[in-house]
Amino acid sequence: MxxxxxxxxxxxxxxxxxxxxxxxxxLLPHAFVVRDLQNVANATNAIKTxxxxxxxxxxxxxxxxxxxxxxxxxxxxxLAGAHKLLLDSRPTAVNLRWALDDLRAxxxxxxxxxxxxxxxxRAAEICDEDVxxxxxxxxxxxxxxxxxxPRGDRINALTHCNAGWLATVDWxxxxxxxxQAHNAGIPIHVWVDETRPRNQGASLTAWELGxxxxxxxxxxxxxxxxxxxxxxxxxCIVGSDRTTRSGDVCNKxxxxxxxxxxxxxxxxxxxxxxxxxxxxxxxxxxxxxxxxERSAREVSHMTGRTGTGEIATVQILPDGSAxxxxxxxxxxxxxxxxxxxxxxxxxxxxAGLLALYPEQARAA
Length: 364
Ligand code: MRU
What we know:
This protein has 12 helices and 18 strands. With 364 residues, the chain is of the alpha/beta class. It has 2 domains: 129 residues, Four Helix Bundle (Hemerythrin (Met), subunit A) (Up-down Bundle), CATH 1.20.120.420; 224 residues, Translation initiation factor eif-2b, domain 2 (Rossmann fold). The model has no long low-confidence stretch (mean pLDDT 97). 5-S-methyl-1-O-phosphono-5-thio-D-ribulose binds next to helix 2 and strand 11.
């Protein structure tokens, strides 16, 4: 997508053929800064501190992290060490494990001298593949949007967190159908949940929709149910960090509450996801998906721009109050109207997913 007229992806290889460059998402929307990742420690840190975030981008960054590790030391020990270091960086998005296992399976049988080149090549392929997958999710989601019967003179979508191009390599998952609808001239407006505590909706989704000219309105996380009761939401669309083989969807904390409100109000609730987000090894999302517990400071403090233009962090809790910060929740499949994938739209069920991915059927 373009930023002030210049096309960008969220991650790319610098002209030296070794350094990996990313957009620093901790500074948006107030500053657009590109960071260099020079080694596997830089890549791990970028994922941990959420310089890069969003399930598909975490996978792409991990793939390049393996390439950076192989550029430093292509030994078996370094390969195993980089896989573990990167795997431990964030627990919930399964794209991380998918990318790391893919790279390890490719590199392990190779002689060490061949690993660096193979790793960079595969990381670049993963990025290109992600762009194409997300473009197709957009096309498949656009088909659903065209069939909606909006209640007003525009189509109102509601989204949570950031599942746009910033969360992927390009296009996004949940926002890809929205970009494609907007590009096709369909009058679409997006209600953007601010997404406390880190405000990925307010700071990232609002920024990228604004840069592309998509009409949007940021709302407090608690406003969605009220808007749905008053007919102001035609559909909800979110991304996923991990989807079980039975269609349960784990996404940013607060997604489940939106799905409950959508169900109660007869509003379709769609999830856009690429195949590496499906964890075929598990069925029960609530019981089996590890939920990241982040720092209480993200709840007790907020960061923003002051009237004089400086970035400032302020405390919003009384001294001494405890805060808890689970990063994700699970929306059970029964609340999901459809899973929009690169292969088409699946019912949120094992049968629905297997109809699109028959190669994942378990041997009897
Ligand atoms: O903690 P984050 O910002 O990495 O969480 C991101 C999300 O929850 C996204 O909705 C999800 O990764 C899907 S991204 C296409």
